Each structure stands twice: as C-alpha cells, then as structure tokens.
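quick one before i forget lol
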Amino acid sequence: MRDELARLRAAAAAEIEHAGTAEALEAIRLRYLGRKGELNLVLRGVGAAPAEERPALGALANAVKDEITDALVQRGWFLQGEKLKADLRGGRIDVTMPGRRRPLGHVHPLRAAEDEIVAIFVSMGFDVAEGPEVEDDFHNFEALNIPRHHPARDMHDTLYVDAGPDVLLRTHTSPVQIRVMRATPPPLRVVMPGTVYRRDDPDATHSPVFQQIEGLMVGEGVSFADLKGVLVQFLQRLFGADTGVRFRPSFFPFTEPSAEVDVACVRCGTGGGVEGCRVCKGTGWLELLGCGMVHPNVFRAVGYDAERVQGFAFGMGIDRVVMMQRGIEDLRLFYENDLRFLEQF
C-alpha cells in the first residue's frame, strides 16, 4: 500500500505540473481526491492491513492528500497569474490614441431662459413662488374674476381632470398669485414661473404645454407708473439697453386697466418696421406680454382691502422669449427632445 500511495503522489504531481487550465486542474482533483477518486480506493484497503501498520498508513495517506491539495492550489494561482499577464499584454491601452469624448448635458434652453428672467426680477427685489400644476376652479378662474360663462372655462379651451368637475390643469400661473396673496399680507413682490396647459393643437406657435412666468406687486400707492418702470427695466436688461418698449391698451378679466407690451423687433431692431422682416412681418414690433393693475374683485377674493392697497400683475410665455432671442420659428422644437436641436444651446 505504501508503494501505491507513492505512485499516486508522483502521478498526481506530474499531471498537476502539466495542467494548463483551471478545468484541467478540477479534473485532476476529482480523479485523485473525489469521493470515487483513486486515493479513496487505496484507503479502503487500510482496514485489511495489520493493526500495527494502520496508523502509519493513515498518516501517510493524509500527507499524500495534503500534498496533492497544496499542489492544486499552487498551480491554480500560477495559472491565474499567467492569464492576468496575457490579458494585460493583449488589452493594453495605447495612451497616444485620442480619447473618446463623453457628451455633457446642459440646461434646456427654456429652463435657462427662465433662470435668466427670474434672476433679473430677484435682483429687483422680487421673491419667487411656485404652485401646483393641477388646480381647482376657484384658484384658476373664480378668484381671478373669470366668471362661469367666460370662454376660458369651455372644455375646448381648458384641460379638465377626471378627479372632479372643478379640477383642471392650470391654464396660467395666475393661481399662484391667489395662493400667495391668501397666505401673505401686503406689501409683496413675487414672480411665479412654471408649466401651464391649454387645449391647443400643436403647430409652429401653439402647444398644449408651455412655460410661463408671471409677476405681482401689491402695496399702498402702487401705480401704473411703477408697472411701466419695472417692465421697461426688465425688458431692456433682457434684450438690451436700447430695446424699444411700447404699451397698448388691452383687456384681461383680472386687471383694470390692462395693456399689451411690445418690444422692438429683435431682428430688424428699428421699431418702425422693415419690409420683408420674417420675425415681425414688417411691423417693427413683437408682442411679448400682458399686464395691468390688479382688479379690485381679485383683491376682495383673497381678503385684501381694495380701498387701501393697489397692485399690478404681468405675465409672459418663456417659450416666446426664447423664440425671439434665438430666431426660432417653430415652438414644437422645444418639446421634441431632438438632440440635434438642443445641442445648439
């Protein structure tokens, strides 16, 4: 039996030394040390040996098993090291080759314009407020002096939600004005940016979702002159110090008196009109925003004393501002997520 154990030791050592893969090593382990391996077959004969020889044969068998196990581990480490060296040689990085540039994201042009507009108003002392995009009839219409029969409440103009007959997607950010005034006593100055929704078929100048920003200033003695001063200052900081600004009479249910505000064409820049200008269509002016003095009914709806305080409000579409600044002629480009368009900004 001693000769058989010596033969197993020598045969296993030779096979392990020439094994070239981890799979080959596993096959050798099973052949010599497995449950049905050659070493176990030899050990079954220990019981037939004389009693005085059994301890020595058992110790010798354990020593052979340990030697084979250690040889398998050492060969396995060697093969792993050789594989790592081969991988390093084959996968070496050529540092002289140009690298692959990872594309970097950036702020969406609409959000960048919103940040710029908000920053201007904040520098003029305005706070910033936000509100829910799913609104109720009171905040979106009733408190803003828009009665039940007003066309804006028609299903064809407003997106209503199944949660109830008076639940809708806000059509402007004006509901935030109501929420701010109901929570804050005058005086106050605040701008409200956000996303709004109207049931418009998308085309070059309309979208069912767009970005808007509104402003509100309330206090004692606030006048239309204050409104004009704030808006002229804002528009000339946004478009340039020489930008022409004009006010035209208009109507909004929540302001009285009301006005539309135009800026001189950003393309032809004259305010007098240049024939053939594609931006202003030769008029020289671009309609940008609406404004006016807050209607007394709005103050009454929020609990303000309409005899003591006055205020003004204004609102504009951020999408339109970017279109004017960048010379973009199709509003849908902002919402199509086409990187060929967005990467230009």
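fyi The chain has two domains: 2-90, 109-342.
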